[in-house]
Amino acid sequence: MKKTISNFIKISSILSIIPIANSCTSNKIVFANYESYMSEEVIHKLQSKNNIAFLPYETNEEIENKFSGYYDVAVPSTYEVIKLKKQNQLEKINWEIFDLTVNGNKIKNGKEALQSGIFSAAVCTLINGLDEEYVKNGSLDNDESVLDYGIPYFLQSFAFAYKGTEIEQLSKSKNWSELLSCINSNNKDLDPRFTPYKERKIAIVDDARSMFGLANSINSEGVNPDSSVKSIRNFANIYNDFSSNFAKKYTYFNTDSGQIISTLAKPYPAGASCAIAYNGDLLYAAQGAGLYEASKSTDFHFCKLDKTLIALDMVVINKKCQNNLSKKQKIYEIVKDICLSGVNDGEIISDTNLDGSFKYDSVNNFDYVEYTSPLSKIYDFVMNGDYFDGYTKSQIELYRQIFNIDSEEVKDVNYIEQEMQSELAKSNLHWAYMNMKYNM
After folding, report:
1. Within 13 A of 128's CA, how many CA atoms are on the CB side?
2. pTM value surpassing 0.70
3. CA 418 to CA 421: how far, in whole Å?
4. What is the pLDDT of residues 114-144, one digit of tens each?
């Protein structure tokens, strides 16, 4: 793995100094993405060949506010994809431009892409469920798919990992309610009050919408309960039920997944004692995140939970770019390199160059980010191939367990993050979240 903690710090610095320009009035391609969510090597390669700038953002709502005027390409979650589509801001993907031949057939649209086998079974199950919902509520036409407006980037599930001696009760937890009850039982192996290390906290991804989904999943309501009538007090009560499971002032929130990985990867007993984060972040932390001592450790434990928050991020293209044909062609080439390279008939996804890097940038990007790939070839390479070559049998078993998201986990669309039902609800949610966070 080429990704290191220093890479996370460096890439955030690179992205933060790029000025925002009105993208659609120039030939510069502006690609917006979450922090630490693309390979540094892939970024440099794309910059060497294209007039392209990469901008960081922290939330889907930030995409929504800036997409029309500033971004040519962005990576929102599915619910934000559909919202941008309903606002008529998205290019309808012309799959023929990608020039993909799978099983002898050219892929011409999203429905054909879904049925072609290029995406994993879990992603196909998820997209089929969402398509059914979106057609039913009028967000998509009968012959359309989410894949007509976005290309799958990475699949994620919210999960939990901890360090130290394995705690049998914790490892046997089947859902978030059982797990948080165990955390809240003043277990000295997890509670930072019982150690001399200041960093020994519970690390949590700092995202109001994700944490709202998690808080609701504790009560088995799904992650998308009706939010249209919820007041600040209603949201506060949900968040407070969640935060009551943690020792006051011993939580570490951060929007940058790289920082969550950094603190969790430190050799026990330093760093965070445990983390609530997306499975890809936990996978990289389990491997030590570039720290030699941590990579040799056997004290990392992962809890796979039922009915947890699921998110699929997708690459979308600004509709305004259709007015600049040369720029549009470049954007399609870039998106294909990142999301779809290596899927054609006869292409072997594990092929490498002379320098040891992977031939296809879809794999190089996965190799850096390590979130669950939506591509079936990469999924099979990780689950059945030698991607983890060099690790022990027990380590490989752990890494595959963290990486794996199967069809059963994504078949219930109630656990896939969806759009908030009103601007007032969104505002109330954020007020309540900030109040909870600064009182923990």
Report:
1. 14
2. yes
3. 9
4. 999 999 999 999 999 999 999 998 999 999 9
